[in-house]
Amino acid sequence: MSSLPATVSGVNAAGVPVPAEDLAKFLTFRVGGELFGIPALAIQDIIGPQRIARIPLAPPFVAGALNLRGRIVTAIDMHNALGMPKSEKTRKLNVVVRTGAELYDLLVDDVGDVIALSMNDLEPNPVSWPESWRAFSAGIFKLDDQLLVVLNFDALLSSQTKSTLQ
After folding, report:
1. 159 vs 17: CA distance, rounded Å
2. Fewer C-beta within 10 Å: the chain N or C terminus?
């Protein structure tokens, strides 16, 4: 991963010290070349490629289900969920997230680092983004050479579920 912003060391992008309670930790991952972050506290596990059983009549964003230590977990194809073209990469990594009492497996292209960022540096979504992206993004961080899209997984799941019911 490229260089991280100064907030990792406890200062914001302007070099001003940031109290620890204003920092949030995010696991970074890539889907289709875009960098996303999800709150680190939501992460249950990161695992390599898994055998995924197809679910008949499942919506396109559901890749199937897998058995994770005796628990059935729904696998989400993040390319379909985000409306992005399929990746040429054949090996997918699995980021298992907890939302409420449920676990979901996010199929992503690559997993980066856990980084700490000042919530004061969180910016609103660009107005030029399509509504579908604004619906699941909780905002963006401007890193040195790229944008980090903060994924609101509950909103993404809700929007995908609503679109399949219409």
Report:
1. 37
2. C
Report the top-level CATH class of 6-165: mainly beta
| Pairing mode of beta strands 102-108, 62-68 | unpaired
What residue ranges do the domains of the chain occupy? 6-165
Identify whether the C-beta of residue 135 lies closer than 8 Å to the C-beta of residue 159: yes
CA-nearest of 129, 140, 119 to 20 is: 119
pTM of this prediction?
Answer: 0.82
Nearest to 96 by CA among 39, 52, 42: 42
